[in-house]
Amino acid sequence: MKNFIIILLSAAVLFSCGILTKKTSNDKSRAIEEKKTEKSNSTTSENDEVVPERKPSSNNGVEMLVFDKSNIPSSIQYTGYIVTGKRWNDKNGENILLLTRTNVKEKKSRKSGYEEIDLECELYGYHYVSTGGSYSLLWKTQDFVKECWFDLTLDFIPGSLSITDINENGIAESTFLYKMSCRSDVSPSELKLMMHENDVKYALRGEMLIKMEGYTAGGNYKVDKSFNSAPDGFLDYAKSQWKEYRLETFN
What we know:
By secondary structure, this protein is α+β, with helices and mostly antiparallel strands. It has two domains: 1-51; 63-245. It has two helices and 14 strands, in the order H-E-E-E-E-E-E-E-E-E-E-E-E-E-E-H. Strands 1, 2, 3, 4, 5 and 6 form a six-stranded antiparallel beta sheet that branches. Strands 7, 8, 9, 10, 11 and 14 form a six-stranded antiparallel beta sheet that branches. A two-stranded antiparallel sheet has the order 12-13. The N and C termini lie far apart (106 Å).
């Protein structure tokens, strides 16, 4: 009888261990599956959140597009190399604006019986518009420094090119500044601001501002008479851009 009870107890213990082992195994399998499912769901969620970046269009219809100077339509012609530009849609259609510059060239000349080397450089602005796949030139501007014997400067001001719609008519304005000089001292460079809406040009012309220890010069400008008939806000914006970019520094 005693032996029979021992056998029953042993069987009960073995049966219980089997249940626990099976339960533990099932729990581990379930945990693994839950982790797989969780990982899968997490990956799907991350992929769902990755969407191409697109700049929102404004309420007045001006929509900025990605500008890539290495992907300019072959029908667009320009001189020099592209420094910067902008691309956008407005009521006129698709717009591409290019700011370009030539390399500084050396040109030999003979003056007063001596052979000298003159420096020259040119810069350009182009605004093309497309309404059906073909691009037409809306406006072109250009400037240059020639016959320079000293240090030549002709550069667009970095970051100054902007696209706005100040009067909210669905047609964008473009604004940029550039500096130019031929000098052998620290006198201010000439500074020009060009603003366009459609093919109408507005301009500020003056000097860059130099601030050094014990020395201040330049910073003044003259307002082109074209601003007399400009929409409200155009001149205020031009003045604010001038103030932001007028300071000239020397490396």
